[in-house]
Amino acid sequence: MMMDAVRRAGFRYLASGRKVPQARQIQRFLDRDSLIQVLRQLEVDCVFDIGANRGQYATSLREIGYAGEIHSFEPIPGDFGVLSATAASDSLWHVHNFALGRTAGTAEFNLVDGGGECTVFSSFLKPNHAMIPERVTKIPVEIKTLDALVADIEPLRDPARRLFMKMDTQGFDIEVCEGAKAVLPRIIGLQSEISVTQIYAGQPDYIEALRYYRDLGFSLMDLAVVNRTASRAVLEYDCIMARVD
């Protein structure tokens, strides 16, 4: 009876035309709850944080109770400096100053200045300036493949480890997977940012990305809205996927 009364009161509140206070923060809390439940269900003990920026994702993992190993990859020198300092006191958090992709080498990287030292829109792909800041500087970035790191990163060669791969590379996530074909069968879960609206030239759309991950053997566990347009259309999702078998 109590829950029915609360539910009715909630519906009356929405029907009045008022907005739920702190709705975005509440949704972020629920999204993080969904993520930690998947990590616990899969018994993940090592997370590959690809496109780490300044360590926001890894920090949030610690906040929600993940205590296992983390390997963060970030190619932008300034962001890597902040990432390194943030991870310095955490013995299970390892940082790597290069990008991951399909093939090893050096490539031009579009460093996007989003203001206030924000670089989260930076990408190997050319930005669509109608949607993100136009202040772009091209810098050379080293690329390695995850497959080539087996000898250097112990969890990649230990069949007992439970591996999860988070990718936030601004349209480059599938390229990361293409360079990880040998180790992907051992990845039991992944998180990828997928775009409903193309914000970088040549990036796959969300349907193509979901089909790609499905064909690798992953099942969709959750979709969380990352950004919306001014008209509230979805711009990007975070998808969480797992090998449910």
Description:
The chain is of the alpha/beta class. The protein has 7 helices and 10 strands. The radius of gyration is 19 Å and the shape is globular.
Question: In angstroms, what separates the terminal alpha carbons?
Answer: 39 Å
Largest sheet: 7 strands, mixed
Number of strands: 10
Order of SSEs: HHEHEHEEEEHEHEHEE
What general form does the structure show?
Answer: globular
**Unreliable segments of 5+ consecutive residues:** none
Counting helices, strands and paired strands, the structural category is: alpha/beta
Proportion of strand residues: 25-35%
| Estimated radius of gyration | 19 Å
| Helicity, as a percent range | 25-40%
* Helical stretch tally: 7
List the helices and strands and how they pair.
Blueprint: H1 2-15, H2 23-42, E1 46-50, H3 56-63, E2 69-73, H4 77-87, E3 93-96, E4 99-100, E5 105-112, E6 136-144, H5 154-157, E7 163-167, H6 173-178, E8 187-195, H7 206-215, E9 219-228, E10 234-242
Parallel strand pairs: 1-2, 1-7, 2-3, 4-6, 7-8
Antiparallel strand pairs: 5-6, 8-10, 9-10
Properties at a glance:
alpha/beta
Provide a short characterization of the protein structure.
This protein has 245 residues and is of the alpha/beta class.
